TrEMBL record:
<dbReference type="InterPro" id="IPR008685">
    <property type="entry name" value="Centromere_Mis12"/>
</dbReference>
<feature type="coiled-coil region">
    <location>
        <begin position="108"/>
        <end position="156"/>
    </location>
</feature>
<dbReference type="GO" id="GO:0051382">
    <property type="term" value="P:kinetochore assembly"/>
</dbReference>
<dbReference type="Pfam" id="PF05859">
    <property type="entry name" value="Mis12"/>
</dbReference>
<keyword id="KW-0498">Mitosis</keyword>
<dbReference type="GO" id="GO:0000070">
    <property type="term" value="P:mitotic sister chromatid segregation"/>
</dbReference>
<comment type="similarity">
    <text>Belongs to the mis12 family.</text>
</comment>
<dbReference type="GO" id="GO:0051301">
    <property type="term" value="P:cell division"/>
</dbReference>
<keyword id="KW-0132">Cell division</keyword>
<keyword id="KW-0175">Coiled coil</keyword>
<dbReference type="GO" id="GO:0005634">
    <property type="term" value="C:nucleus"/>
</dbReference>
<dbReference type="GO" id="GO:0000444">
    <property type="term" value="C:MIS12/MIND type complex"/>
</dbReference>
<keyword id="KW-0131">Cell cycle</keyword>
<keyword id="KW-0158">Chromosome</keyword>
<keyword id="KW-0995">Kinetochore</keyword>
<keyword id="KW-0137">Centromere</keyword>
<protein>
    <recommendedName>
        <fullName>Protein MIS12 homolog</fullName>
    </recommendedName>
</protein>
Amino acid sequence: MSVNPMAYETQFFGFTPQTCMLRVYIAFQDYLFEMMLVVEGVMLKKLDGIPGCKISPSQIRKCTEKFLIFMKEHFDKLFAKMEEVLLQLVLKIPENVLLPEDRVHEQYPYSREEFQALQEEVRQLQQQCRAEAAAGQALRAELEEQKAVRAELEKILQCFDGLENICREHGAGNFKESFALLTQSSKKLQDVLKDVEEKSKKMKLHNQL
């Protein structure tokens, strides 16, 4: 069998020419074996009808096997010639023939260096796409976080609005002014507590002396 890969022919036919020839060879060989069995069966019937025949079935089988070996040797020689002719003249695409799907290479020829440059450009574009996808995912995550923070802020504002309504109902005036006054009072209280703690510390020191 031929060892030429015949890649272009495989692209056109959809199968390797060598595989095609192998299947033809196997088919012919199977038919040869079947024919020998038919011939052997006919001979057994003919000899069985001859009275006094001393040829046994085992002898006929040996003769059939010898004849099969002889036929197979000649068949292999003939098939080798047939395979050479078919692979060169029938299943081979001439070098000057271009398949339709490859005509684009004829219209836009590229050298190896140009092809490598295109591959590098494609690789860089893929990296940019991945980076942009990651950035988009990060932005979406930030937007979700901002939505959550905004929801919490809206809850706080609703709480303040509720407090302001309560203050108005009880005549406390403006909630913002009340909250500012409460903050000042709290700060004054903290100052008083701090002053008391300092005076307490001084009195303890005085008592120890």
